[in-house]
Each structure stands twice: as structure tokens, then as C-alpha cells.
Amino acid sequence: MQGGGDCCIAHRVFSGILRSDVMCMVCGFTSTTYDPCVDISLDLEPNQGGSGKSSSAKSLNSCNVEADCMHPNQNGGISTLNGCLERFTRAEKLGSDQKFFCQKCQVRQESLKQMSIRKLPLVSCFHVKRFEHSSIRKMSRKVDRFLQFPFSLDMAPYLSSSILRSRFGNRIFPFDGDEQDASNDLSTEFELFAVVTHSGRLDAGHYVTYLRLSNQWYKCDDAWITPVNESIVRAAQGYMMFYVQKVLYYKESENQGTS
């Protein structure tokens, strides 16, 4: 797939670009890579019922996915989409078994990794990781924790330009202009227009989609399409959420109203 995402209509609509920075904790050398993506997979926030000490330990070593994902009380509590995005773009210390080769130190060093969004798509798709697998316990399960998602979403805090500015302050760094150019071509304001839910067990279930058209929500359940109240959508257990550029959404709504 081309980095610009122009090979087909699907990529022109859904394709964005992620930035990954791996920074040496000894000398500060940073290795940067860019990858195209058509959706972003998000981990639900860790259970907030634990002690502050355990929560801090998890934030310093976010790579210990087994411990986080298979926590016995993981189904409790409430996560938010903004919290999941903050966790996705938070700097994490890689484990000692994941040392990367620093080109400046010329040896393998411990490092920090941070993800950010270099370029936003026209439609942002977020996939929530509700199916977990543990090779240690040899078990799989579905996470039923409720996820709060906003109807309007500002993606500015998760852009590479914002992440780099918070990391370096107002200092000028070599890639500053490049990141600003990549994020200014589209608005950062998005509007929710579709939510996909999954009900049932891990090995069997049913998918239902809630879709918004001209400010009216509809429930799409196989061959049945029925209008529903907005409160029904807010209470849905989100599995995938689709957000469209707010300017494009309201422009299309206006066109439908005049046709």
C-alpha cells in the first residue's frame, strides 16, 4: 500500500499515517518510522480500582500486555475513548528484552516508544480490543467493560505536531515543519456517525451497527433497520467507532436537506 493512501477510494477515505518514535534513554537519539493505517486498534484503559503503586508500575512498563489484559477484575469499571487515545499516544518504556540498537551509542540500549498520528484520514476508524488471548494461561475471553465515546471528537492532542510540542516545548527541532504541514491539511474536529457493536461470546456472537443520517440514528440489525434514540447509541457497547471530518459531515447533511 502506498504511503499516501491514494490507491483506491477506501484508502483515500480511511487511510492515515502513524508516526512511531523510539528514543534511546541514554543519549536521546530517536529513530522515527511512518506507517499507513486504515484503523487504529485501542486497548481499553486498565482497571482503575487498583492501588496507585500498581497503576504507576503499569504505566512505566506498558509492554506487559499479559498482566494488564488478563487481570481478573478487568471487566469492571468504565473506559473512555479519549482515555484510550491518550494511552495509545503515551510514551512507554520498552522492556529490557526489547532493547533497540542505538545508532549513536552503537550498542543496544533501553528505550522509550511513543506513537502519534502524523496525518488524519477523512474518516477515522477506531477498533476496540475486546477479544484477549493469553498464551500463559492458554485462555481467551471477551472484555465487556463499558466504553464512553464522545459524539464530537477533537484529534488535535494526538497528532504528532502536538505530541512533539509537548515533548520539546517551543524549541525548534528538525522535523517540526514537516509534522505541521502533515497535520494542517485537514480539520482535527470529527463527528461520530457509526458504531458497531458485538453481543455474545468470544466464539459466537452477533454484530449490530448504529448509523446516523441527517441527525437521526438508525439501528441496522441484519435486514431490519429501525430509528432509535441517541441515548440508545450512547449506551451501546462500542466495538468499532467511525468518525468523519465534522466539516464534511455537516456539508453532506446540508446537501441532503436541500435535495
From TrEMBL:
It catalyses: Thiol-dependent hydrolysis of ester, thioester, amide, peptide and isopeptide bonds formed by the C-terminal Gly of ubiquitin (a 76-residue protein attached to proteins as an intracellular targeting signal). Residues 1-246 form the USP domain. It is found in: Nucleus. Its main location: nucleus. Keywords: Hydrolase, Nucleus, Protease, Thiol protease, Transcription, Transcription regulation, Ubl conjugation pathway. Pfam families: UCH. It is an enzyme of class 3 (hydrolase). Its EC number is 3.4.19.12. Belongs to the peptidase C19 family. This is ubiquitinyl hydrolase 1. It comes from Gossypium arboreum.
